[in-house]
Amino acid sequence: MSGFPILSLVIFLPLAGALFILTIRDQDPHIIARNARYVALWASGITFLLSLYLWFNFDRSTSAFQFVEKAEWMPLLGLSYHLGVDGISVLFVMLTTLLTPICILASWEAITERIKEYMISFLILETLMIGMFCALDLIVFYIFFEGVLIPMFLIIGIWGGPKRVYSAFKLFLYTLTGSVLMLLAIFTMYFDAGSTDIIRLLSHDFSASVQTWLWLAFFASFAVKIPMWPVHTWLPDAHVEAPTAGSVILAGVLLKFGGYGMLRFSLPMFPLASVEFTPLIYTLSIIAIIYTSLVALVQSDMKKLIAYSSVAHMGFVTIGAFTLTTQGVEGAIYVMLSHGLVSSALFLIVGVVYDRIHSRDIADYGGLVHRMPAYALIFMLFMLASIGLPGTGGFVGEFLVLLGAFQVNTWVATLATFGVILGAAYMLYLYRRLIFGELTKDTLKKVLDISPREWSVFAPLVILTIWMGIYPSTFLNFMHVSVDNLLQKVEHAQTIATTSSVAEK
Question: What is the Cα–Cα distance from 447 to 132, expressed in whole angstroms?
Fold first, then answer.
């Protein structure tokens, strides 16, 4: 299959599914809805099976981009349709293709209006997300990166809660503002390097002053996407109003865009600026971890609590990435992957009980273990994974980040560890309020335990969370060589800068 455009197929198959759904016609709206659901499930399921080809045929011994595709797009401007994956991006492609069919299954009964349009939005969203992780041209990257906003805006704005329009616009404006600065930075890079090809840009040396401005412009966009404190306020609003599947994809994949962008652009392309701004990153990350954990402790809405916990977890990602140690960077990637599974599962867990009694208020629950023992067990697993219990994916990622942080700054490591304790506090508080106690609420006395469809949604997430916890080398082997290559670039740039400054003196 040498030369076979596997990446293009994985990217555009969901789009083909969306176009097929557009053609569905029938007088009976129930038949249209049924067919749209099945087409979306088949399209996303086949996309996942195709993406397994990347997993099994990926060469883990090289840091070079693999499955590369390149075609001239705008020759006069030097722009090309350029795709490829390395040991970092391939894992995020797999995460995206896994979560999309899970989201469609989770929406099977929850979405009852405009089902055809909903499934189209989700499949287009999948195409854009995979494209973003595979792009090796800055303009192609930017198109996919920003394009994601449109279907996400529609999913929240049409199928969301009572304040959905406000939340959708807030999401759009926050992310767009940061991205405009990134676009200006892309133009600057194009005029400086004469190319938008990411592989060429990775070997291009930008001057120290240019790096500073480019780093800040990219940071403005990535900080909103992660999101970092203080530009995180759009996230709780978006999560609360989004439908369950919207929250899953938002937490599972979209929050990873910022972290991925930092690893792909900020660190290797602007290494001097990255080192210069490391104290800023540490400060904002520590504030995010501690502050949002304390805010999570006082939440009455389940979704809001999990949303604030996501901000805290992303604080670990930014700390790990900027430690510039192998353990720290690999830990940051691992936290992103683990959080993608665990937080997705937690939003699905909220969705299960929300579908039954249509309330997200913690006070409306209690004693669910009496009626839903299987649900209580699954909830316990993901709650403990979110805390970082050994044997789950959450532990490995956080341990590696803290190990990396301890090597470079003991204070940062200590304060981040305090955030872990706070994380345990708010998650255990949530679990106790929902699951334990007497079953006194009349609305809960007839609720049913997890259905076979819900079991099929949770099963892959349960398996992978435990697998990531007990056998992390499966995933670490993918990223190891790419991370080493990234750190060598940063180290090389620092050495040259130090040598030149000494020579000037």
Answer: 41
